[in-house]
Amino acid sequence: MSGLVTSVSRSAGHTFSKPVSDGVRLLAGLGVEGDAHMGETVKHRSRVARDPSRPNLRQVHLIHAELHDELAQAGLEVSAGQMGENITTRGVDLLGLSAGALLRIGGQAVVRVTGLRNPCVQLDDFMPGLMAAVLDRDEHGHVVRKAGVMGVVVTGGEVRPGDEVLVVPPQGPHVPLAPV
């Protein structure tokens, strides 16, 4: 499976939305250079408050542009970076990936998918109704989180809009993504 990067974003501060950029540099084991969530240990404020020594499994946040399309159809106009993602993709079923899948992005960068973003109330602070719009239920009544996936940087490199995203599934059985 492959797709494309449609946008990249970063923010040096702990802001909900991240400004769109011409490119970002991923740093192995750390995340997006210049982003507030970069680091070996957790940087999201709620997680730091619980245990600042935990490994940062949320170095890079990716959202599929198809979610923006779906939200627009529901009357919620959200653009790249506004939900805090670092990389927006098109053509990759991010939510259907197996835990541990590798995303080869552009010429060098590799991100290992660690899990799902767990939507929080900040979504409704940004735009009323957004939280409900990124949650769904499957045919068995289980919650489906649609606000993207999180990952860690395995190999650093530059990432720009137009870069190819190639999915490399992990060896072994498919492991559904869980919130991280």
Automatic annotation (TrEMBL):
Q: Which domain of life is it from?
A: Bacteria
* Domain MOSC per the UniProt entry, residue ranges: 18-168
The record's listing under PROSITE patterns reads:
MOSC (PS51340)
**Entries under Pfam families matching the protein:** MOSC (PF03473)
Protein name as it appears in the record: MOSC domain-containing protein
Matching PANTHER family:
METAL-SULFUR CLUSTER BIOSYNTHESIS PROTEINS YUAD-RELATED, MOSC DOMAIN-CONTAINING PROTEIN
Question: Lineage, please?
Answer: Bacteria, Bacillati, Actinomycetota, Actinomycetes, Streptosporangiales
**InterPro entries from the UniProt entry:** MoCF_Sase_C, MOSC_domain, Pyrv_Knase-like_insert_dom_sf
Gene Ontology molecular function terms on file: catalytic activity; molybdenum ion binding; pyridoxal phosphate binding
Secretion signal: which residues? none
